[in-house]
Write a structure and sequence with these properties.
Layout lengths: L1 E6 L4 H15 L3 E6 L6 H15 L2 E4 L11 H14 L3 E4 L7 H13 L6 E5 L16 E4 L4 H9 L2 H7 L1 H17 L5 E8 L5
Parallel strand pairs: 1-2, 1-4, 2-3, 4-5
Antiparallel strand pairs: 5-7, 6-7
Length: 203
């Protein structure tokens, strides 16, 4: 199975669904992590992203879109559509389309548009931590048990040393705490939750 996971910036995917990626990789599925832009500290954050992808067992693709052009547009949809056409995924993941960060929302909407005619499932992961308050509620519709790979998820986040230094140790507590909360909801230790845009059963 081929999986594409889209994130606006380095570390977004790891925070939102790093455990799920680790599970896919552990089960020998092909996973490509697609990063739209690196808004600052480019050389440092690119290396961090490469290290994190290696920890998760995934490939990494950086589109290197100009941060000032990170808006929902025909150009962005075309770039993401090219990636989807090239890799022909079975499953696609992206940001939640009500995330409080404008880049995250732009990527989410562009992915939704780019997959409108594709024969693949599409899921959105939860708002990236830390995130702002929004007047919407995430509709938890799908769970992945990440109990066996929670340490791998945390290690991948910690590979983003510049962001750990900026956000502080509480950042990791927040990520792990949410995973524990989602796990409690399905009677496992840790889990990640997703909102379903479309699900294509390939039986």
């Amino acid at each position: 199975m081929r999986v594409l996971a889209f994130g606006a910036h380095p570390d977004d995917i790891e925070v939102g669904m790093g455990g799920t990626i680790a599970r896919y990789s552990k089960n020998k599925h092909d996973v490509i992590m697609v990063i739209a832009t690196i808004p600052n500290k480019k050389n440092i954050r690119q290396k961090e992203a490469e290290n994190a992808a290696e920890i998760l067992g995934a490939e990494l693709l950086i589109l290197d879109i100009d941060p000032n052009r990170m808006i929902f547009s025909r150009e962005l949809v075309r770039r993401l559509d090219e990636v989807i056409q090239e890799y022909s995924p079975d499953i696609v993941y992206t940001h939640w389309n009500h995330d409080s960060h404008q880049d995250h929302v732009a990527v989410a909407n562009a992915v939704i548009a780019a997959t409108r005619k594709n024969n693949c499932s599409l899921y959105m992961y939860e708002q990236t931590i830390p995130g702002g308050i929004v007047p919407y509620g995430f509709r938890t519709q799908s769970f992945v048990d990440i109990s066996e790979v929670i340490d791998t998820k945390i290690d991948a986040i910690m590979a983003h040393e510049s962001q750990v230094a900026m956000n502080g140790e509480w950042w990791l507590y927040g990520v792990k705490g949410r995973a524990m909360y989602r796990g409690y909801q399905i009677n496992v230790r840790y889990a990640e939750a997703f909102e379903v845009v479309k699900e294509v059963k390939k039986i």
